């Protein structure tokens, strides 16, 4: 009798399990995801194998002519000034591929690449490079791969790893430091790896160029114990932040000697983008309140002055008046930042509009005129950029809405249909004619392929939290890094003290946990909640009165749960 009951209970449970399985993850869906992951994997290997065959150890592959280009000195160098006469490359695409090989689980190839670089790579070369590009691609790639390789972190190389990549990164870091020797502490945009800053070097740099160095420099300081890297990047960042307007807006370009703005119009695209990204990610990676104290007003100002519905235009930092009504393809990273702070509804809305532009042309045009709804007359290219895939990945992580998998599938399909050639993947010169260009950028391997793969298989993320640098290189979020103090000679110790307090109490070690809305999941599954933006949960009573914490909402700006004060009002009260 009893046994029969048990059996029927088991069967009922089984039925429900099966039913919810069918409901939540139908088998077709599950199979599709594996197929799509394999398609993303093949995309990476087609790009990688062709690079290794036709271009390695030069910088990047020319997929149409199946040869190479030593393009490091050309990155960010629109007019191709001061190009080196004798320069044979730094295996840039290999450095950029290592963390992707780790994500794809190819240890053998990863180990081979590390060995080659340790033996053969040297930065003692007479080549003038862009500080920002060199930092995010080479330094970021080396640091990330070092962390993934070493036993104390990722452990991809068991035994026999002798910190070769860290030595390379340290050497490269030393070569970049002289760029920071300016009256403002804001670094030159260009430096020669062998000879330092050129005489008569340009004094102009961009906000992203000098304001997105802190992740790599901070990580390098923690790994080497040498505080100079982080100190230099932080000093530059503080100076830059002090140059914001009364509206908390930044300009796009500035003079590193005078600390005066050159271009006052700015937005969230080219020349500014990763400045915002790095403030937030530095807060997550290093746990310093100071970064959040910069990010939060900067983010609010962006939403206030640049946003028009789901779109973002540019505005003058002094007046907040709109200047250019243009979508630029780099802006497509913004929803990913919004997901990290829990503003998922806004991210979703913007992502949808950007994807509609992708669908209109087949790939993303570099510029699109919002006021006319047409493509820009000259900037019609698509150099295999990752930003839309990146945002798609973040939004899928946050929502698990299968719609984003469909988007990922469409991105894969159009990339394969329009840009795949026998010798790799080629950039698009003009999205209206789909004429190709003989260039496979290294970021296609470090970002575009990686984010698409992670969209369909996030096993890599299962036991560690990472922040990705702006080139897609993962850096693990480590508690120990958040207890490390920079030795910089800061007179103002108030934020350091507050930081020490909150660090002592910090119980999180996760990018997602720390800034994502604590109740994100239930917000999505619980329609009865009054949700304005995903991060913002309204208090139960319109007049904010409460009798317990349960009837208070979540603060939109900080993503913190509001508490009920002793006098009966919801707010961000400190714990009594
Ligand atoms: C670059 O390679 C060429 C051909 O192998 C070689 O002759 C030259 O010395 C190399 N230049 C440098 C700077 O390594
Ligand atoms: C790793 O990459 C190499 C080079 O593309 C390839 O030959 C090998 O099959 C890959 N291994 C795995 C396990 O995917
Ligand atoms: C370093 O480069 C040389 C010359 O190309 C090559 O013979 C050697 O195998 C490389 N080292 C490693 C560890 O791959
Ligand atoms: C995203 O936008 C679509 C269309 O407006 C909507 O149906 C969906 O619920 C939104 N998802 C989220 C997570 O906001
Ligand atoms: C921090 O600043 C206060 C006043 O500005 C000073 O009294 C105190 O000694 C400082 N603490 C440290 C650790 O430097
Ligand atoms: C940290 O926790 C202690 C007790 O555990 C508390 O007294 C203190 O106020 C907390 N500090 C912050 C900044 O939350
Ligand atoms: C939905 O929200 C209400 C109000 O906070 C709560 O009481 C309820 O338990 C939630 N339901 C689910 C399924 O989370």
UniProtKB/TrEMBL annotation:
One Pfam family of this chain: Glyco_hydro_47
Q: What class of enzyme is it?
A: hydrolase
Per UniProt, Ca(2+) binds at 470
Name the catalytic site residues. Answer: 133 (proton donor), 273, 366 (proton donor), 387
**Keywords for this entry?**
Calcium, Endoplasmic reticulum, Glycoprotein, Glycosidase, Hydrolase, Metal-binding, Signal
Q: What is its EC number?
A: 3.2.1.-
User: One of this protein's GO BP terms?
Assistant: endoplasmic reticulum mannose trimming
Gene3D superfamilies noted in UniProt: 1.50.10.10
Q: Name one GO cellular component term.
A: membrane
Task: Give the cofactors, semicolon-separated.
Answer: Ca(2+)
Subcellular localization, as worded in the UniProt entry: Endoplasmic reticulum
Read off the InterPro entries from this record. Answer: 6hp_glycosidase-like_sf, EDEM1/2/3, Glyco_hydro_47, Seven-hairpin_glycosidases
Where is it predominantly found?
endoplasmic reticulum
- Which is one GO molecular function term here? calcium ion binding
Signal sequence annotation: 1-30
Family label: Belongs to the glycosyl hydrolase 47 family.
The protein, known as: alpha-1,2-Mannosidase
What organism does the record attribute this protein to? Adiantum capillus-veneris
Lineage here is: Eukaryota, Viridiplantae, Streptophyta, Embryophyta, Tracheophyta
